[in-house]
Design a protein that fits this description.
The protein has 297 residues and is mainly α. Helices cover 75% and strands 0% of the residues. Helix 9 runs antiparallel to helix 11.
């Protein structure tokens, strides 16, 4: 813990973000980073492929373009009658693309620990140039140009949840609650990446729904697309939530056990001084060591 104690010898204690970074480094000394880099590499590759496919279409900047579901159902919107539709949809896609790229940098621990200023700057880009415009425009497109009622519910739910989780994570950062901020921004980025999940599961959902095409759906392409799109949106959202919550729970279980048991476990009341020094339930041993050295005069 030498490198942790050295931080307390300065004139001012490290900030909450720096303490969290020091705690992470002390908690996992010498941990192999290969799996982490492999995971980030896979996510970055999937993002690159999806953005290449997306912008090969939208990069044409053709106002006659619309959603692929509308094209398949042959209910495109005329740019003369609805001039804002294309530009709102294009701006939504641009914001989501920015959030996907910026989020990869945000979950990269090396950037967060070695370059905290860059991490904060990219975080602002992620929120204010990515998530906020993408969600607001998605809500506007759904409100004024809905494909169907069935798909509108899933799109509104995803947009509101995505925006709410992101802003809550930002509020935690401004309150100095860094560990909670990190977890909630992981949740935010999982919702950002739900589009990748949707792309991955779309062929399977399409295959399952098509088995009912000539029976329950009466061979109606419009109804088929509504059912397929709404189901793939809900499943993409559910799978994204399960993945990120599973990861956060796995990360929590890997933390070392606390040395001090909570008073409720023994039925005894700690004195006021001991209660003030007792760690928060989510703090790890290394985080407590950081706090202890910082508070030492």
């Amino acid at each position: 813990m030498e490198h942790v104690k050295d931080r307390s010898s300065g004139d001012s204690p490290p900030r909450g973000e720096e303490r969290e970074n020091l705690a992470v480094q002390a908690d996992r000394p010498g941990r192999p980073r290969r799996r982490r880099y492999v995971f980030l590499g896979i996510v970055a590759f999937c993002i690159l492929v999806s953005l290449s496919i997306t912008w090969s279409r939208w990069g044409q900047f053709d106002p006659n373009l619309g959603s692929q579901a509308r094209e398949r159902a042959n209910i495109e919107l005329s740019p003369e009658e609805h001039p804002l539709y294309y530009w709102m949809l294009l701006s939504h896609i641009a914001g989501a693309s920015i959030a996907l790229v910026a989020g990869v940098l945000q979950v990269w621990r090396g950037l967060r620990t070695r370059h905290p200023r860059v991490h904060r700057t990219v975080g602002r880009v992620y929120v204010f140039a990515g998530v906020v415009p993408a969600t607001v425009l998605a809500l506007l497109v759904t409100a004024f140009y809905p494909f169907s009622v069935a798909t509108a519910f899933s799109q509104v739910a995803l947009s509101l949840l995505w925006l709410g989780v992101t802003l809550f994570g930002l509020a935690l950062r401004r309150q100095g609650r860094i560990a909670e901020h990190r977890r909630w921004m992981f949740r935010s980025y999982a919702l950002t990446c739900s589009v990748l999940v949707v792309i991955a599961i779309d062929p399977f959902v399409q295959l399952l729904v098509s088995t009912q095409y000539h029976s329950r759906l009466n061979g109606n392409l419009d109804i088929y697309l509504q059912v397929k799109e709404s189901n793939v949106n809900w499943l993409g959202l559910l799978i994204s939530i399960l993945i990120v919550e599973g990861y956060l729970e796995y990360e929590r279980m890997r933390r070392p056990k606390r040395l001090i048991e909570p008073p409720a476990a023994s039925g005894e009341q700690l004195p006021p001084a001991a209660q003030a020094a007792a760690p928060e339930p989510h703090e790890s041993q290394a985080e407590r060591e950081v706090e202890k050295t910082v508070s030492t005069p």
